[in-house]
Amino acid sequence: MRRPQTPRPLPINKDGSNGAARGAAKSAQPRQSADANTGPAKTGSAAGSRQRESAQQRVSSRQSETRQRDERQNAARSRPASGRRSSRSEPASKAPSKAVTRTSSGVVASAKVAEASLASTDYHVVSHGLQQRYEEQRVANRKRSFNKLKRLVYVVVVLALVAWVALASPLFALRMSEIRVSGSGGQLSPASVTKVIGDQEGRSLLLIDVAKQAKRVDKAFVRVRSVTIEREWPRGLNVMVTMRVPVAVLKTAKGYQILDGDAVVLETRSSQPAGLAVIESSGKINSVQVQSITTAMGALDESVRSQVVSASATESGYVSFKLSSGASVIWGDNDRPALKARVLKTLLSIQASVYDVSYPLNPTTKK
């Protein structure tokens, strides 16, 4: 028979724990450390694979976006788009790719490769964008130049049309039938005026020198004192004349010369005209005497002038009149003739044989 073995007591450690527990703990400790090392390794490999897949997806999506962008830009070059659309598309192509910071070395390497490929594509996109902007700018400059030239052509055409209508078209051409004469008192007819300026018929009113034509009419008619011509649109002229007024008659060897207030001979007749005062002289009369008489007669009112039957003057120009009533008028020189004419008209309301207006501020009468 065997003797039953007595179990040996376990040694007691200094900290009070037994050796078996300590051994179990030591055997369990390597297993736990192994488990701890194995667990994170498995987790890291799974996370790395997910990050690699995510990075690859990002790279593929960016490459797809780059291809789409290239296609859009190629389409834009074939069909020029606005500068605003191209400027919007460029910043997207220039956006840098962000790599994953906490990944395995393989993921970082693939991200760097993707960035390099995107960078090379971005340079290509930028180059095409600058070329497109340059082309658009060139087209815009060409359009502006063309528009300026077109506006200039329009202005020239309009000015040429206006010039033709104003100067060459029959719209403003002068017609002799539309010439009017005013102020002549029937002494000057439109027909006589058209004979003088008839060469202007059919000419544009804008091209007619009215001042020159007025001088022509003035020279053509002695009885005309002054002439003013105005245009009457669209095809007529208004000739306004001031006629000379006959005031006296001078008897000469050739006949009776009718004179106006400036001593201009208006007409010569063989017989004495009625209603005009005759210039008398005891001897040969000079131009100073004639001028003094006509100036005095021209200053008189028409109602007073009709009462004068004769006039005379000294060699120094001292004038006197004979009235139809038999009374005499001492006019004197031609100082202030208008005032003397008004004073004489007032004095004629008084019956007298002599009216002295040589000093108009102190006139006298004599019965």
Automatic annotation (TrEMBL):
Residues 75-93 have a biased composition (Low complexity). Residues 248-348 form the Cell division protein FtsQ/DivIB C-terminal domain. Residues 1-106 are annotated as: Disordered. Residues 1-10 have a biased composition (Pro residues). Gene3D superfamilies: membrane protein fhac. The chain crosses the membrane at residues 152-174. Residues 64-74 have a biased composition (Basic and acidic residues). Residues 175-242 form the POTRA domain. InterPro entries: Cell_div_FtsQ/DivIB_C, FtsQ_DivIB, POTRA_FtsQ_type. Keywords: Cell cycle, Cell division, Cell membrane, Membrane, Transmembrane, Transmembrane helix. This is FtsQ-type POTRA domain-containing protein. It comes from Actinomyces graevenitzii.
